[in-house]
Amino acid sequence: MTQGPLPLILLAANEHPDEKFRVHLWSCLDAWLETQSSTVAHDEIEAILSNQKGTFFEPFRLEGAAKRTALFLSRLAFAETSAASRFRIVSQDSIGNTGGLVITSNKNAFYSERYELGKNRLKKSDLRFFAPSMTVDGPMKAKVGKDLHATMYSDDHGMYVDFPKSLLNVVDWDLNRGGLTGELSSNSHIGPKKQSFYSIGMTVEGTDKGIRLAVKSPEALIRFSTFVVQEQSIRLIAKTRFQLTVQLPPSAEGPAPITVTANDDFASEWMDVKDFGAPSLDAADIQKITDWSFHHMSWLDGI
User: Fold this and answer.
1) What is the pTM of this model?
2) What is the DSSP secondary structure assignment for residue 139, as one 8-state letter?
């Protein structure tokens, strides 16, 4: 089950600085929703949301973009293509993603309290949900404020790509966390056929300045040079919310441009929309989103 790019599209539809683009994305989202054959109407969901006040200790409030997103996701949850029978919406004033309004596919609803002694408390829930206050906190390009790059170079012993600590910090890769280099060695790949580092003889080394990709043996250098000449990309993947994709410079020297890419679960604290699907955006729309925030792995993979 996958979240897909829907959370990233919704993030841009709500927060992109270009108002016209936000309107355009919502138009794409709404048009796509109508093709999903939801079993509940917009007015029915809006009535349920508007009539819910929560409790004295846990008031329920949804306004503006949070309400629009909740309306959209609730209808999508009960589309004919969805297997969901319930959908949970957390108040935008709540910190965290537990509790909230639970809507059922037969158009009933009840309020799930987070309070330990509350009524209808869901002690364990795997329901799909939306928690407005837990919106994505990540390495958005607009916040990073500059183009990112690794550095490629060579010496008498081999070819290397260096990723300084300042770059690793952008995606919260902590060199002090045990196992990071092992994760990168096992999960990362190179080229369109996603060849493993092991298959071409590339190693991942931790240094006092960051992380280094190293290719040293004569056989590995021959294999790796083919990727360099063709300006192929390397995907660095760890058990974190974001990946780094680096494009190899054909000269094998100098800056190697970096693209920050969201893993499928990058927005898992904000919403759970597994298998809800997502509208297909054209290349220009995807580019405008990635220029503002980051890429999504499904867009890079073409899935």
Assistant:
1) 0.92
2) -
